[in-house]
Write a structure and sequence with these properties.
Layout (H helix, E strand, L loop, with lengths): L7 H6 L5 H31 L7 H41 L8
């Protein structure tokens, strides 16, 4: 056994995650997704109301590229957090209906 691998004693002593841990993670991630969605909506409304006006075509292209990246990243954060919240919520429900000797994997 290498020194980086945990021994069987360490694995047996580590506490297992319970339903409350899954629920708090799902609620936290859901809150982050809701906040990220609000930010995404505000960014879309702001950029729709304030289109970039530059005389240079290169500056115009850079502004549009940055606007697209910001909106895309904000919606990516919304989707990622929402998907994590969904997964943790399903794991919470699963942990309620399975016994203590259920396989966590």
């Amino acid at each position: 056994m290498s020194p980086t691998e945990p021994s069987s004693e360490t694995r047996e002593q580590s506490p297992r995650k319970g339903p409350l841990s899954f629920l708090s993670g799902a609620l936290t991630s859901g809150l982050i997704a809701w906040l990220a969605f609000g930010l995404s909506r505000r960014l879309v409304f702001y950029f729709a109301a304030h289109p970039p006006h530059f005389s240079s075509a290169i500056a115009q292209n850079i502004a549009i590229t940055l606007k697209t990246l910001l909106v895309g990243l904000s919606f990516l954060a919304t989707f990622s957090s929402g998907f994590i919240a969904l997964g943790l919520g399903l794991l919470f429900l699963r942990s309620l209906f399975t016994g203590a000797d259920g396989d966590p994997a």
